[in-house]
Amino acid sequence: MTQRTPSPMDLALAEAEAAAARGEVPVGAVLVDGASGAILARAGNRTEALDDPTAHAEMLAIRAAARQAGAPRLAGCDLYVTLEPCPMCAQAISFARIRRLYYGAEDPKGGGVHHGPRIFDQPSCHHRPEVYDGIGAGPAAQLLQDFFRERR
Amino acid sequence: MTQRTPSPMDLALAEAEAAAARGEVPVGAVLVDGASGAILARAGNRTEALDDPTAHAEMLAIRAAARQAGAPRLAGCDLYVTLEPCPMCAQAISFARIRRLYYGAEDPKGGGVHHGPRIFDQPSCHHRPEVYDGIGAGPAAQLLQDFFRERR
């Protein structure tokens, strides 16, 4: 029996599942070196655990990778996220000069890429990543639905 | 000779000056308990020093105060910033449930409150702080002008 190597989005989904298990909104993110495919950082949402309203999965992954890189910019890196990033994370993705953004489920209520302020379409946005959506959208949305159903 | 107690915006300007002295874009922020007036956190921009594209003054102040409070929300707290917050920081201010935002200089190119995506005016923005602008705008803008003139 052969096992395929998990894709970056598989790993991001695993981070989202781990976040749900901790009682956090289940969103996961993985940062990859675009050239080598090496995983640079992976994180799940930790706003409650860290008492930090900015501790979204994307922010934690970007901060960890930038710290490792020794630079506040991550040109040539690609970010995989299970959910459409919010406006805060979208702007951070732009600041970090992320090359490509791959995300799973759409977030019509809280998203900031294809919804709401559409951060990358603002004239004041200096760096716009290539955006690919819908990858792993089914399981990513299911995780969120299950999480919020249990909380109601 | 009497000395007046420095206002929160005076302290934010001092943080901006200290940031400039470190070679960082000179923006400073101070978080205050709205009821007691106590200073909860103060910070200047540290994106270069920390290798962190998210380390804007507002983000560092919010994160420090939330960590101290032991909660990811800072209801009843007011934020003083020398410059109009960018979209990332504006969204973080909303997530943190900041009561009032006082800011100094306008930022037509990078601001996200009265410019660009106008984060608090988005229908998807669940918490909108009261916003007061123009406080200490002169010295805040001068610091930024001097900083960027020297870099050119």
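The beta strands of chain A are 28-33, 39-44, 77-83, 100-105, 130-133.
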